[in-house]
């Protein structure tokens, strides 16, 4: 039997680990550290009960019960820790609390729970429970798409002054002063990859934000030990990153470079949406990773076909996208935005021009390569992708001394593979 090791959500063998694009060596540390953290929290359940009882105004701690560790949910709902990047946990909580505060004041029509808690006694369920079984039902999809359209429209009605995330400051004030906190940033930081985006950094323009996102991708290639599989893979990744900068002007309208910026829920997936039996949305239960982003980043949900973003079947997805946008357009006619821009035409143009795929690539480190060569590059040339010289020329404009960089990355990969074999007893 092959040796199996535990990751956070699965067990993995050497053959499976060998082909992963993420740093499995680093992730093997998560399971024992998670167990240590769980035990640390479990030993303090009485303190948690006291704290929760205090915030709920209960007379006694005995009226509040913290579940035993065996009953804790994890995977979609997790304890927050920041062992690798101290302060990330506080940042995440402050930004989510800031999003709640802003929505309660500016978008009261968006259904969100009170911060103190939430239950399922009404019979409502997460969309993810019924999505796969009932997604072919046109009536249910129509109800869902209408609900989501109104939520997205409400969020994007208000013009925000810059790109960033809301945060509750130490004095209790609400400010749009945090970096635009998305899952990508903290995922990279958890992998010990520098993102060069301080917590206090917001962005005045789309250009500055795009450059910063691409720098995150650059650093993943530089610092992740198994970022490349071969010389050819390294060259094509370098080429993709160089060209993502070159072609950005084609996908991002310079007239919108300084706004408007609107609030986007970048983690709005089926497990965060509470619906009734008719698929009418009654509550959004998770507002993490919300950020003020360029209006060109608005798009239909990427999970409509249940496929990874770099594996989406364009024809199947477009059929559902058109259905969604037809409803979105009708609802928008009832909801004019204060910034005066119609969002439906912006989203439609983004699909036709390819901005949809470009912006998804920007936010998906492991998906950028496939998205660029399958969705972006073909718009420019049908022959370059089969021309080896093209790649070897362009990659040299991603960094000086490109041949030396390639050698370093191949050495990193060889060392990584050796350590991975040792971890699984394959030596």
UniProtKB/TrEMBL annotation:
Recorded source organism is Polytolypa hystricis (strain UAMH7299)
Q: Please give the name of this protein.
A: Aminoglycoside phosphotransferase domain-containing protein
Q: Which superkingdom does the taxonomy of this entry point to? A: Eukaryota
InterPro entries on file: AGP_Transferase, Kinase-like_dom_sf
């Amino acid at each position: 039997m092959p040796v199996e090791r535990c990751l956070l959500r699965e067990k993995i063998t050497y053959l499976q680990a060998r082909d992963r694009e993420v740093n499995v060596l680093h992730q093997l540390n998560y399971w024992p550290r998670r167990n240590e953290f769980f035990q640390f929290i479990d030993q303090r359940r009485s303190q948690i009960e006291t704290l929760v009882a205090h915030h709920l105004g209960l007379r006694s701690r005995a009226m509040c019960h913290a579940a035993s560790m065996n009953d804790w949910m994890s995977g979609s709902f997790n304890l927050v820790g920041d062992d690798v990047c101290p302060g990330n946990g506080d940042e995440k909580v402050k930004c989510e609390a800031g999003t709640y505060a802003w929505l309660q004041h500016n978008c009261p029509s968006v259904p969100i729970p009170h911060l103190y808690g939430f239950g399922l006694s009404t019979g409502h369920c997460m969309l993810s429970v019924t999505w796969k079984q009932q997604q072919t039902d046109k009536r249910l999809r129509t109800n869902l798409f209408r609900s989501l359209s109104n939520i997205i429209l409400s969020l994007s009605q208000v013009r925000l002054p810059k790109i960033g995330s809301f945060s509750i400051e130490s004095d209790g004030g609400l400010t749009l002063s945090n970096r635009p906190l998305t899952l990508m940033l903290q995922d990279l930081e958890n992998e010990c990859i520098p993102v060069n985006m301080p917590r206090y950094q917001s962005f005045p323009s789309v250009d500055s934000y795009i450059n910063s996102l691409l720098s995150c991708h650059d650093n993943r290639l530089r610092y992740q030990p198994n970022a490349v599989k071969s010389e050819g893979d390294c060259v094509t990744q370098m080429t993709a990153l160089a060209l993502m900068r070159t072609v950005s002007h084609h996908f991002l309208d310079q007239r919108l470079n300084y706004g408007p910026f609107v609030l986007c829920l970048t983690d709005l997936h089926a497990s965060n949406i509470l619906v009734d039996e008719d698929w009418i949305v009654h509550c959004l239960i998770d507002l993490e990773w919300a950020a003020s982003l360029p209006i060109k980043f608005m798009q239909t949900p990427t999970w409509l076909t249940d496929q990874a973003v770099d594996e989406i079947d364009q024809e199947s997805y477009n059929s559902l996208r058109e259905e969604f946008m037809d409803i979105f357009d009708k609802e928008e006619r009832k909801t004019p935005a204060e910034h005066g821009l119609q969002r439906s035409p912006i989203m439609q143009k983004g699909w036709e021009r390819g901005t949809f795929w470009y912006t998804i690539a920007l936010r998906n480190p492991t998906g950028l390569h496939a998205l660029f060569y399958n969705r972006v590059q073909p718009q420019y040339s049908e022959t370059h992708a089969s021309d080896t010289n093209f790649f070897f020329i362009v990659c040299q404009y991603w960094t000086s001394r490109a041949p030396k960089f390639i050698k370093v990355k191949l050495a990193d990969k060889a060392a990584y593979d050796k350590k991975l074999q040792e971890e699984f007893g394959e030596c």
